[in-house]
Amino acid sequence: MEAVSMASMFTFQGVLQGLCVAVLVGVVIVKLRAPKLKLPPGPTALPIVGNWLQVGNDLNHRNLAELANTYGDVFMLKMGQRNLVVVSSPDAAKGVLHTQGVEFGSRNNNIVFDTFTGNGQDMVFTEYGDHWRRMRRIMTVPFFTNKAVQHSRSAWEEEADFVIRDLKARPEAATSGVIIRKRLQLLMYNVMYRMMFDSRFETEEDPLYLKLKTLNGERSRLSQSFDYNYGDFIPILRPFLRGYLKIVKDVKDRRLALFKESFVDVRRKLNNKKGTVKSDDEKCAIDHILEAERKGEINEDNVLYIVENINVAAIETTLWSMEWGVAELVNNPEMQTTIRNELISILGKGNLVSEPDTYNNKLPYLSAFVKEVMRLHMAIPLLVPHMNINQAKLAGYDIPAKSKILVNAWWIANNPKNWDQPEKFMPERFLDGKIEASGNDFRFLPFGAGRRACPGLIIAMPLLSIVIGRLVQSFELLPPPGVKKIDVAEKGGQFSLHIATQSTVVLRPID
Ligand code: HEM
Hints:
The protein is an alpha+beta fold. The protein has a single domain, classed as CATH 1.10.630.10. The protein is 52% helix and 8% strand. It has 17 helices and 11 strands. The strands form 4 sheets. A 4-stranded mixed β-sheet has the order 1-2-7-4. A hairpin with a 2-residue loop joins strand 1 and strand 2 (82-87). Helix 6 packs antiparallel against helix 12, helix 13 packs parallel to helix 17 (457-474) and helix 14 packs antiparallel against helix 15 (364-376). The longest helix has 32 residues, at 2-33. The chain is globular. The model has no long low-confidence stretch (mean pLDDT 93). Bound molecules: protoporphyrin IX containing FE. Protoporphyrin IX containing FE is lined by residues 97, 123-124, 143, 309-310, 313-314, 317-318, 321, 379-380, 383-384, 446-448, 452-456, 459-460.
């Protein structure tokens, strides 16, 4: 009996050992047979965590620029199970955004963004393909065409005038100063909500405005935080993120419900009323989008995700750039004088800058100033991460499928190899008007370039010139009493960059 059980144990052990050896041999054969990849350089990765412990959580544009100095213009980090490829030269950026724009034209999954966008039912964070093409087409007519700009430009100029009117009405603005961001934020909401819904908020205290601002702020904080990286990089750690993801889902649900009940459905009801067929001139963006829904091109959720995308992509980015612009105006009073004189000499005294004045380098110094703000203080310094669905080649390296590709547009625009004294705020470098923000020069990519480039540039660039130009025409902008320069220290997120301390600015009216 004992002999039999010994024998069976012996065979069992043998089988187990045999199996282990077979698996091991199999793994070695697969490894040997697999084509040898020429991966981009990078620090040696540890099992499971990869380079995570070496490089830390905060993969911001400055830390990544330092790593580029060590590992080169195209390098790779292994963050847990994710491959992260960082691109830091104009040539390599051209490869990702233009030459191989299709291969690298998708977006990565990310546990938090997936929740906020319903797993890519939106446009900004969706894969490159039919859904993206459809969403882009539907959003283009009401937002991203010259016709849309002409339709809205008087509203933009009116909102800029309201800012000036309100600031002039506040005595403290001319003495102790005001936090300018708050009023510019209302301007940005009004510009975009007038375009979207033909509606505006009268004051900063409007309860609906406050609700929107809070929920959008929460969305931004939760998605831009580095706190959830561990669950994103190492899937087995995801259960520890349950609490975080529950909050994300709650914010997402409340936000979409607010968009739906307070804006989309209001407009839907208005459109459904008999005898309210609108001409193209009377339509706002959501009317066009609801038309696409009626035709069955998109569903109700897609409509809400378009509203979600505009709230994130349009409002904060442009606001941050305005705030940086105001800070640079205050810190460089001689540039205020140059802009003011240019506006007087080209437009004539008393004529405020308007949308048609902002093109073709008609106002070279004002345009150069806006571009320089975007070069030194890029609102989205790493662009929105790109992704290659299939294995691809870049700069002679093999890029594994589904790598997260970060284009360090900030470093490309601030690297002394590409720019003279890049740390200096010098609008003169853009004076000849040859370098546009649209990506005609791969050293300057504040809006990206190619297929996934920002379509909102058509709104953001004229709007920035209108607001900055009109502020300078109406006020002398100064630091608050006792302060020499405004603090332009920055605060970054997963891929955002804004001024760390909200600037208090004194605005002394000019006759
Ligand atoms: C100063 C203001 C702005 C800056 C700096 C900015 C920057 C960017 C950047 C860097 C990207 C990603 C490009 C890439 O992945 O290669 C992007 C994408 C996008 N932006 Fe903007 N943006 C601004 C304003 C706007 C405005 C006003 C709108 C809409 C009205 C808008 C709508 C979008 C959309 C829809 C995308 C996604 C494009 C896609 O994935 O295909 N942006 N933006």
